[in-house]
# Entry
Amino acid sequence: MKSILITLTLLITFVGNLMAKEHQLAIVIHGGAGTIVKQNLSDEKEALIKAKLTESINAGYAVLQKGGDSTDAVIAAINVLENSPLFNAGVGAVYTKDGKHELDASIMRGSDLQAGAVAGVSHVKNPINAAKEVMLHSPHVMLSNRGADNFAKQHGLKTVDNNYFDTDYRYQQWQAINHKNKVSLSEDLLKTDYKFGTVGAVAIDKNGTISAGTSTGGMTNKAFGRIGDSPIIGAGTYADNRSCGVSATGHGEFFIRYAVAHDICARVLYKQQSLQHSADVVINHNLKQAGGDGGIVGLDKQGNPVMVFNTAGMYRGYKTEKSETKVYIYNTK
Amino acid sequence: MKSILITLTLLITFVGNLMAKEHQLAIVIHGGAGTIVKQNLSDEKEALIKAKLTESINAGYAVLQKGGDSTDAVIAAINVLENSPLFNAGVGAVYTKDGKHELDASIMRGSDLQAGAVAGVSHVKNPINAAKEVMLHSPHVMLSNRGADNFAKQHGLKTVDNNYFDTDYRYQQWQAINHKNKVSLSEDLLKTDYKFGTVGAVAIDKNGTISAGTSTGGMTNKAFGRIGDSPIIGAGTYADNRSCGVSATGHGEFFIRYAVAHDICARVLYKQQSLQHSADVVINHNLKQAGGDGGIVGLDKQGNPVMVFNTAGMYRGYKTEKSETKVYIYNTK
# Structure
């Protein structure tokens, strides 16, 4: 009799948990997509990149595990990548035509569709933090250039001299491309390592709130104050608790024209298709046909991670309640 | 026998025309939405505004009638409004916090999803022409600030001193708002005349190509290099021959967060709902609930004009093959 009662209690608890738990905690990140092939990447650099991706995922997931919100998880994960010279975001950002650095970032929260973005900042140490500050403490969504730097400074964010973002590696790239007088999406004109280096993260917290963020140094040798997709809500970043969260990386002009991040979420919401299928159609069919290289990472509202790209590789990885931290570089299909 | 042949021939011609003719030539424009109420507008100003809207519509429609493409029709219509001090675009643009003018514009072509945009230009006489130049003759979609001005100058567009955009009317506005140290969406803090003044146009040509464009002086007293929805493809402007073309006006931050222009086209394409219904849901339900004031004009792929706003009024009008030029100001519901 007693054993039946215990079994019943366990059963009720189990079912109760199942019903209460409609989603899992999860974070998925990327460090850029492009023609990343084994022969262009030394074992040492591959190990460094995988270690940094792992550090980023775990930093973001730790926030979720402590009961923190998904916006802070996205910030924690992206800060690790911005602070590493391995990626084209924060330190390690590429050089503009003028030999300077102009960085872009955006973030969005799916519970209330609040969003913030900065374009062309030169002095904010972590552009994604400036985007969050705009989202939380400004009547605006998008600030640009000096104005965005001033806003960040007034709100107490850490600022640096522009040369803080310098790295020899990016400088060599810029020199090589500048001689050809070509514009490059980060590194696609370089023989040594073809990846674009934009970084991004999407997380879902205990409340089921999905946040997505993206941060980049833009294009090597970019001129004319070019703005890519990373600071554009709907292109490089979108989050809506009803559908999904998406962060993109790649040839930004195509991602703007195809409103990639919003289009993927719209397909999930309006066509009732899975995030995986929606992302496959947009990235591997629509963008590929148009000649737009790149990829996205995303989470659906159950916390299932998706990583889709039409290039040879994408620095990427995720952790969920059901899965340990996983990191990948090449196309594993 | 002969009469039967003639009847048959006529019938075949008639059916042939029906099949060949799946859309009509059409253009729809707006000159801003807001709390536009009769008592705030003198009969003289109302007459001036209606005359200028009519001139804009007819200028755009003339391009379509001559067999021109919808991009040039949009440019022709918007140039009329940019060159008039009555609207917050081109001459008559509002003042920034620094007492200058920073203008934004974007344009998109629905046949191939090509797009161009400029943000924060200070010297291009007609920002919408700079957006077209970016679309047609740049590898980029979005250029900003000095870089965008330089690009326009290098491509032979007419440039002016920043004070070309000055008007006493806007200066008084800026002074009034500057004293309150408030940011205004064009005119919403002013007692005299509440409209926002962004302008836009959507046209469909003989090939069924839909183009949409938007041009604005932004917010009175704006600071921090704020970028609104007008230069954002997917927010203020979107065009896709498979669904519709949309140009928006209103509280830009909401239009960015809700990706209004792309969302309306996505609903038409994915939910198979009419443009009218899709725009009603987004503008009169979603945006209204969120507190986002504004409206849109659009054309579906048959060339049916739609004008939807959740404010007291919107300067607007259209002309199609089936209809004479119509212009409206107030909510006629």
Q: What stands out?
A: Chain B touches chain A through 44 residues (CB under 8 Å).
